[in-house]
Amino acid sequence: MSFDPATLGSLSLEEKRRLARELLDSRREEHPAYTDLTYDMAMHSTSAEHAESRRFGEWLKAISEDDAYSFEAPRLGGQRTEVDILRESGEVLHVLNFGSYNYLGYSHHPEVIAAAKEALDRYGLGAGSSPILSGTLKIHRELEGRILEFLGLEGRAVSLFSSGYAVNTGTISSFVKQGHCVVLDRSVHMSIQEGAQLSKARTFYFRHNDVGNLEQVLRRLAPENTRVLVCTEGVFSADGDRGRLAEIVELSHRYGAQVLVDEAHSILVAGPGGRGVGEEQGVLRDIDLLVLTFSKAFGGVGGALVAREEMARYVNWYARCRMFSCALDPAVAGGLIKVLELAAGSDGGERRERVRANAARLRSLLADSVSTGVSESWIVPVMYGLGRLTFPLNDFLQKTGLETNIMQFPAVPKDESRIRLFVTAEHTDAQIDRAVSLIRQAAQRFGFAKEGT
Fold first, then answer.
1. Vertex 333 angle, CA 342 and 302, to 5°
2. DSSP H helical segments within 31-50, as ranges?
3. β-bridge mates for residue 132, sequence order
4. Largest Cα–Cα separation, the chain
5. What is the 8-class DSSP label of residue 265?
6. 3-state SS assignment for residue 231
7. Nearest to 192 by CA among 126, 271, 260, 141
């Protein structure tokens, strides 16, 4: 079933949604498992034989038979603004790449690659051991020092991890324990939520960015009688909005709680000199546990905790995912050092200006046709709602030439699914305009365009 875009433009929002449901129903007639299952329906089962894996496999098989499986498609080159991808069918598609968070383009910068190669030649492919045992290399110490220099936080210490996810799970589960309390913004990343679960501390939530609601929670907990950790983010990955860090830090400290801020999507991009939202809001030096991720604007992989020296050293030993994992690979560490050098200079400043301008252009062009929520950053979500639309929508976007980043339950609440567009400094005006055109086509076809468009 296909819909004529010219006809769709004259329909009401409810009629567009009805047509979207008809599209799903037509696919269901051919493949019953195609849309009857959503991600959460294959998460649980009480059977002894793990029936959920069979159910999930049947679902994916039906989607693949319809040539609609668009996930896990290998890229045939680096994460540039345009890339060739290989579908399961063997078809190669050339797409605009708005699905990668290589915000500043450093993952393929020639000087970064050269620095990584130099470290590879000197130290070899991997660190070969836990960082607590024999896996710490001189280049790791150099990276730690460069991070503190970049942030202007001399006197603090850095704990390096081999993944950004592990920074949150390891830090939180070692900092708080059973009997303590963790208070989470409802929109924090899954790694923060899992860190709270691993800690066995009592977990509480406050409404997203609602400082008044946070105060209500802290007042009930009486932090003077127990350890309390409040967790939030610089830029939230689901909505692309900034955390209210200045207010949250001041309030939490007033109640005796400590604060973890994850700057994964904001470090190098937000704030003066790229030092993040904490610096932008004047509280960088007041954050107790600062989390950085190297897989976003750094263009690499891994992450780091920045904290008081005694706390960082404690986390080094008591974050199990760090102690029982291999240290950060040296080639990546070498590349990250060069990234920090570039980001601190004029090159970083120019790239930050471009990514901010590009994001503003994209949001502006999309504003009249789709909902982009509360985004105010280089993450621009486009709300499409129903999780059942995820596979046909992503398939449609890829085949029309646009690679995006789909987010659905459990990463966001049910029926609040969204396309995420990650804007980089290297996207051109023409590429942004083309992406907008394709998003509008998808919105018309699947019924999530704004009324009157």
1. 105
2. 33-36
3. none
4. 67
5. T
6. strand
7. 260
As a whole number of angstroms, the distance between CA 121 and CA 74 comes to 28
In sequence order, the 6+-apart residues with CB closer than 8 A to the CB of 280 are 242, 270, 271, 272
The phi, psi pair for 318, rounded to 5°, reads -110, -5
CA separation for the pair 412, 418 (Å, rounded): 9
Peptide bond into 272 cis (omega under 30): no
Given 3-state DSSP classes, what are the helix, strand and coil percentages for the chain, each rounded to the nearest 5? 45, 15, 35
| Backbone phi, psi, residue 50, to 5° | 60, 60
Q: Dihedral, CA atoms, 282, 153, 140, 305, nearest 10 degrees? A: -50
Give the integer Cα–Cα distance in Å for 296 and 144.
Answer: 18
Six-digit token string for 156: 């603090």
Residue with tokens 């979500």: 381
Mean pLDDT by 10 residues, the chain (453 residues): 48 63 56 56 70 81 84 92 94 96 97 98 96 96 98 96 97 95 96 96 96 95 84 96 98 96 98 97 98 98 97 96 96 98 97 98 96 95 90 93 91 88 98 98 92 70
Cα Rg of the chain, angstroms? 23
Closest Cα to residue 4, out of 19, 26, 21?
19
- C-alpha neighbours within 13 Å on the C-beta side of residue 317: 5
SS3 230: strand
CB atoms within 10 A of CB 257: 25
> Cis ω on the peptide bond leading into residue 5 (within 30° of 0)?
no
Q: Is 375 helix (H, G, I), strand (E, B) or coil?
A: coil
Structure-derived torsion over alpha carbons of residues 187, 190, 196, 199, reported in degrees to the nearest 10: -170
- Helix (H) / strand (E) containing 326: none
